[in-house]
Amino acid sequence: MKRTILAIALIAAGAGAANAYGSSTRDIDAAQAREAARIQQGVRSGALTRSEAAQLKNEQRRIEQMESRAKADGHISRSEHDQIRAAQVRANQHITRESTDNERRGWRRWW
User: Fold this and answer.
1) In 3D, which of 105, 91, 83, 72 has the Cα closest to residue 33?
2) Helix, strand or coil for residue 53?
3) Cβ atoms of 70 and 64 closer than 8 Å
4) Mean pLDDT (the chain, rounded)
5) What is the greatest pairwise CA distance in the chain?
6) CA separation (Å) from 104 to 21, 51, 53, 57, 95?
7) DSSP code of 106?
8) Residues with Cβ < 8 Å from 71, sequence gap 6 or more?
9) CB contact at 8 A, 48 and 38
10) Does pLDDT of 39 surpass 70?
11) Closest residue by Cα to residue 36 from 53, 15, 11, 52
12) pTM for the model
């Protein structure tokens, strides 16, 4: 009886671990959404220049492509997940650096 309960517990724990990296990408998607919002906020506030925003958006597109390639076989491995998360951490650092580098988008008057 104890072995059966232990076996069920191990199977359940394994299934949970598989879901954490398998096809579930909620943490990756949430980070992408946060980073996109930060870029938009930087553009609205003027903290990001147009070229900085374009570079940061391109970096976000590359991360999305990494995620798409990883999902192509229907499963994201732990190493693929870790690589995507590492790219997101670097992108987050880039957003912070560009937002705080005192380069501001100026207001242009047409008159």
Assistant:
1) 91
2) helix
3) no
4) 82
5) 84
6) 39, 11, 11, 17, 14
7) P
8) 23, 25
9) no
10) yes
11) 53
12) 0.72
- Are 58 and 36 in contact by the 8 Å Cβ rule? The answer is no
If one compares 19 and 90, the residue with the highest pLDDT of the two is 90
Answer whether residue 49 shows pLDDT above 70.
yes
Beta carbons within 10 angstroms of residue 48's beta carbon:
25
Rounded to 5°, the CA angle 35-40-42 comes to 95
pLDDT exceeds 50 at position 111: no
Compute the distance between CA of residue 96 and CA of residue 49 in angstroms, rounded to an integer: 13
DSSP H helix total and E strand total for the chain = 4, 0
Please give the single-letter amino acid code of residue 30.
A
* Rounded Cα distance, 12 and 21, in Å: 15
Q: Rounded to an integer, what distance in angstroms lies between the CA atom of residue 69 and that of residue 28?
A: 14
What integer pLDDT is reported at residue 31 of this predicted model?
Answer: 94
Q: Are 48 and 102 in contact (CB under 8 A)?
A: no
Helix (H) or strand (E) holding 97: helix 78-99
